[in-house]
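Private note to self, pasted from the team thread so I don't lose it. Backbone tokens:
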């Protein structure tokens, strides 16, 4: 029997899909297959912005025919969208053919839900309100060798006014440091070369005995072996000298910080409930670069938050110039029912929002191109992670997060490779092995 998993959203979800694959394997679905050949199809959904949600609705709807034609096919829908208030009901009404609905807090029950569904005709629904457990017991089927994701915490307590995550993922829960260390040691022993510690807000990590995130990072970076270490996501309000000191101390920790700033306007940051100012953010970056001069910083930016004026948007543009990001994820504000911002007046018209995002993307791309161009003629060390069949090239990232492509006669996935860069195109660099 075979499975097919469709994942929407962030790395957290991608890793959760690896855990879902682990559960499916235990239930006898032994390999992944194209959607038409699968005996179970699982949608792991996201609801952070409206388009992620619409995308899932569209794809699930498109299954109606296959489901009718293929006896015994199980369709399961899980993840953030299902956990969102009222959405499970809506999904059932719109798509009565769904067999299993499970929330973000029910991942470890999926195996039982499959058993229950096999035993009955009726669909099975399980959506827990909250969860305190920090171990889900799943043994992930990892799909991203030589990279491995490791959850350090779940949930978020920040309640940024635009964000639905605290509502669908619940309060913060940290895993025990000892469990995280064991997992990393095992992964390194298995040959994984890049470990990414994952949390909605890694700085809020509190392990047993009050272990802080910098202390955890220090411990993980001290694990023996040939690997590099990343972590995400960092919240600017929790930026600390301790974190910088640990980053500086260990060569294994990549010189890259993903620290979403969201806006360059203090008034908008206040409305977003972000709890830092533009000035504080820039001061922190200055400190980081004093200590680790070549550290690259990436960010997330939202345009057209309710009441954002043209001048305030300009402040975001000027911040992008000052902060010297190597790249940024850019989003148009998307109202999410149940969040505080969704109740705010002063919605920005679609044309204005589109115009702002276009200008922002142009600036971010220009900065990225400028930075990439400086690499031409230089050497970078990448961890080869995949082959791009279309380009006929291998690819991987350097510690700063830049993508490097090169040609090779043999499979190089999992190796550290030094390239001499001959050409730059956006965030991608092309080079020859040296
Ligand atoms: N609208 C637009 N962007 C959002 N993000 C989170 N919620 C919203 C929303 N309602 C963005 C933020 C966050 C990233 C993961 O998604 O920039 O950092
Ligand atoms: Fe959402 Fe803010 Fe929590 Fe990030 S820190 S998940 S943006 S509430």
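Design output:
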């Amino acid at each position: 029997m075979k499975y097919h998993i469709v994942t929407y959203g962030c790395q957290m979800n991608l890793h959760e899909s690896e855990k879902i694959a682990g559960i499916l394997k235990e239930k006898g679905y032994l390999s992944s297959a194209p959607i038409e050949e699968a005996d179970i199809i699982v949608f792991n959904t996201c609801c952070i912005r409206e388009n992620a949600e619409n995308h899932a609705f569209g794809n699930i709807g498109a299954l109606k025919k296959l489901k009718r034609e293929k006896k015994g096919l199980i369709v399961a829908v899980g993840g953030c969208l299902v956990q969102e208030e009222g959405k499970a009901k809506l999904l059932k009404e719109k798509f009565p053919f769904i067999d299993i609905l499970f929330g973000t807090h029910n991942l470890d029950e999926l195996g039982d839900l499959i058993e229950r569904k096999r035993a009955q005709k009726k669909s099975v629904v399980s959506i827990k309100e909250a969860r305190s457990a920090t171990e889900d017991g799943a043994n992930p089927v990892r799909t991203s060798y030589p990279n491995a994701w490791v959850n350090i915490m779940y949930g978020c307590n920040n309640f940024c006014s635009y964000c639905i995550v605290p509502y669908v993922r619940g309060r913060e829960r940290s895993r025990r440091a000892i469990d995280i260390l064991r997992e990393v040691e095992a992964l390194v022993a298995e040959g994984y070369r890049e470990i990414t510690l994952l949390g909605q807000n890694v700085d809020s990590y509190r392990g047993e005995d009050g272990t802080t995130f910098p202390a955890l990072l220090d411990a993980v970076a001290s694990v023996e072996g040939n690997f590099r270490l990343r972590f995400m996501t960092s919240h600017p309000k929790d930026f600390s000298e301790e974190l910088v000191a640990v980053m500086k101390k260990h060569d294994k920790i990549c010189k890259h910080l993903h620290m979403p700033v969201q806006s360059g306007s203090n008034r908008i940051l206040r409305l977003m409930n972000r709890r830092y100012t533009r000035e504080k953010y820039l001061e922190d970056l200055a400190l980081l670069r004093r200590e680790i001069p070549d550290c690259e910083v990436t960010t997330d930016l939202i345009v057209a938050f309710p009441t954002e004026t043209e001048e305030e948007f300009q402040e975001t543009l000027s911040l992008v110039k000052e902060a010297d990001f190597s790249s940024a994820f850019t989003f148009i504000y998307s109202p999410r029912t149940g969040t505080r911002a969704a109740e705010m007046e002063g919605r920005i018209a679609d044309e204005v929002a589109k115009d702002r995002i276009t200008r922002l993307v142009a600036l971010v791309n220009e900065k990225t191109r400028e930075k990439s161009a400086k690499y031409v003629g230089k050497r970078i060390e990448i961890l080869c992670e995949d082959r791009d069949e279309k380009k006929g090239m291998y690819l991987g990232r350097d510690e700063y997060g830049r993508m490097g492509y090169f040609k090779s006669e043999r499979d190089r996935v999992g190796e550290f490779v030094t390239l001499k860069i001959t050409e730059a195109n956006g965030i991608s660099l092309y080079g020859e092995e040296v």
